[in-house]
């Protein structure tokens, strides 16, 4: 359209002015929303995309955080292709701030804390993790303190110093074939992941820590028979997960991983479970059971809502408290109990033969 035709048409000129003003206001509001939601890198108070104004009744009736998974670091020395909590930042809360958050959780009803990552033993060579474990058991008197690790960074001296304060140590192992672990990314160089697994199993027995194995079933291991190896290792629980896609983590344009090639069907997952039905310690978790049945805290102590297939953060419990933040967690408490999330999780109650 020529300029003369615009000038000679007051109606078109008015529409152009309105459009320009709308674009300007949209840009301003977008920036204001960005800064007020704490979305800039390094803050601990980013909001969920949903409205953050809560009804007082909703806060009072908020879910009790019986069992919480605290991913205090995203850094990891492995590169598992399906990882759904990837190394987007290197941020870790100061120790005293992390302790303050854990105390708030205990005061809100937390009975079990699980430390994860990333790789939790990577930060400060495991000392940061050890101090949190000791604090939760000794100071907070939590019934259950557990860790999920890939096992590669664990040393015996850690058990000597902190083993008394730990109830459960879960080591992630997706295959009992070294080549398969390499293909998955469950490895560091040519170091044997399985050697670490068996060594940690022995340390757990020696230092009286309940030993657990977590396996993610995917296209690379779905046809494997693990019965003999699991029976030999005899973990107290063998958690078997169906490979899960989370937008922004292991799927989508902004993801650090591309996990689509690892995904298996519900039928394939069920066939794997059927093949291992003789293993008494097996605890299966399909995508349906897993997605919303965990209370997940990220490195800023924000609850992560996975209902939309991504991880939308609440405000940090350090800023607004547990009851306010947990309302945005998307937590499905019924599914938590249905999948067996509550069990005998104190090693004192497990009556294990050491």
TrEMBL record:
GO biological process: defense response to virus; innate immune response; positive regulation of immune response
Topology of this chain in the membrane: Peripheral membrane protein
Ranges in a coiled coil: none
CDD domains: Radical_SAM
Signal peptide limits: 1-23
Cofactor(s) in the UniProt record: [4Fe-4S] cluster
Subcellular location field: Endoplasmic reticulum membrane
InterPro entries attached to this UniProt entry: Aldolase_TIM (IPR013785), Elp3/MiaA/NifB-like_rSAM (IPR006638), RSAD2 (IPR026372), RSAD2/Viperin_antiviral (IPR051196), rSAM (IPR007197), rSAM_sf (IPR058240)
Keyword Cytoplasm in annotation: no
Domain called Radical SAM core: residue spans: 62-282
Main localization (coarse): endoplasmic reticulum
UniProt GO cellular component terms: endoplasmic reticulum membrane; lipid droplet; mitochondrion
UniProt keyword list: 4Fe-4S, Antiviral defense, Endoplasmic reticulum, Immunity, Innate immunity, Iron, Iron-sulfur, Membrane, Metal-binding, S-adenosyl-L-methionine, Signal
Keyword S-adenosyl-L-methionine part of the UniProt annotation: yes
MF terms (GO), sorted A to Z: 4 iron, 4 sulfur cluster binding; catalytic activity; metal ion binding
Protein family per UniProt: Belongs to the radical SAM superfamily. RSAD2 family.
Name of the featured protein: S-adenosylmethionine-dependent nucleotide dehydratase RSAD2
Organism: Larimichthys crocea (Large yellow croaker)
Taxonomic lineage: Eukaryota, Metazoa, Chordata, Craniata, Vertebrata
Gene: Rsad2
